[in-house]
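This part of the workshop introduces the protein records we will be handling. As an example, a complete record with its sequence and its structure tokens follows.
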Amino acid sequence: MVSTDRARLFLAIPVPVDVGARLADASAPLRRSVQSEAVRWLEPSAFHLTLHFIGGVDRALAVRICDSFARSPPVRSFVTRFTSLDAFPVGRRPRVVVAKVEVVAEMAALHGWSGDVLTELGVAVESRPFQPHVTIARVGRNARIRVSPMEVQPIALPVRELLVMQSHLLPEHSVHTALARTPLASR
């Protein structure tokens, strides 16, 4: 369960390893065009789609969150797809390079349902519009790079489960640990 008195949590959709490898291959031209030591490309095994960032919570709330997501969501498994590569925020000082994910009805429903569950627990959810994406690189604070949006051949992303993840921040990277897994009913 939670490894400390406080936990930094988020809800995520895992990216299967083979899908992550295809995404890394599709991003190769972008990697070549953005050659900077300030850009740290992530390993495909670290890819995930964040549905909601929860932030730091105490152990008791972390347990309640995990327990709440033990129930099956009212969304069946589905497939969406990666459609393009870009950076957030747009401009000369992006913080992350991302693979954008198509918003399908099931994705919107899963995002809405999980946000409602968090709200019931007293956890604030972001009010910004949901922009599903997978971070594929992190950009150093003072780096000045330009990333031009790039279309990719669509890559299918099967969505079969929802994870409650704990993030451990280390100096060079983050380590993510799944605290709870909620399978989506199969079609």
In short: The chain is about 20% helix and 40% strand.
